[in-house]
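Data deposition worksheet. Section B asks for the primary sequence of the deposited chain exactly as it was used as input, without tags or linkers unless they were present during the calculation. Section C holds the resulting structure in token form. Section D is free text for depositor observations; keep each observation to a single sentence. Incomplete worksheets are returned to the depositor.
Section A, Depositor: J.P.
Section B:
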Amino acid sequence: MKPENTLCIVVDIQERLLPALHEADKMVERSRIVLQGLQALEVAVVATEQYPKGLGKTTPAVQLLLDGVPVFEKTRFSALIDEVEAVLTEKNIRNVVLLGAEAHVCMLQTVLDLRAKGLAVYVPYDCTTSRSPDNKANALQQMRDAGAVVSNSESVLFQLLADAKHPAFKTVSKLIQ
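Section C:
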């Protein structure tokens, strides 16, 4: 996994969905840290919003970090919609980092679709959640079974850094303290 062949998809971290989610504040905070690290590493990012008319837009805390990032509306549960597929093809992406909600619905279906396309998928467990912790745990196991790497925010960022000599090392290491 290298910054130039990796895409982060921010999946449905939306205003009206968050109050129903277990430990949503923690998920948002860890996702913000990952997004800041990915910016320092110059990793491409896209975001999706599931039916924003009903669930609202991306929460402002995350939206602040999406300046210039394409945000695609969807009704499909999987975030692998045509617009996202176009970005994957255009940028010759081989690895996808997924952040978002809900783990057992949109995140899981996205993982399954990305794996079916032969892409490596990384899901930091601390950057996803569901209404129920049991549903999250079950989804993470299904993701593992499908071949996704269920990791954590720090490991994903350091895997992309690969070396303490990377120019973004100091920026990223300060984020995770």
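Section D:
The beta strands are 6-11, 44-50, 71-74, 95-101, 120-124, 128-129, 149-151.
The two ends are 23 Å apart (CA to CA).
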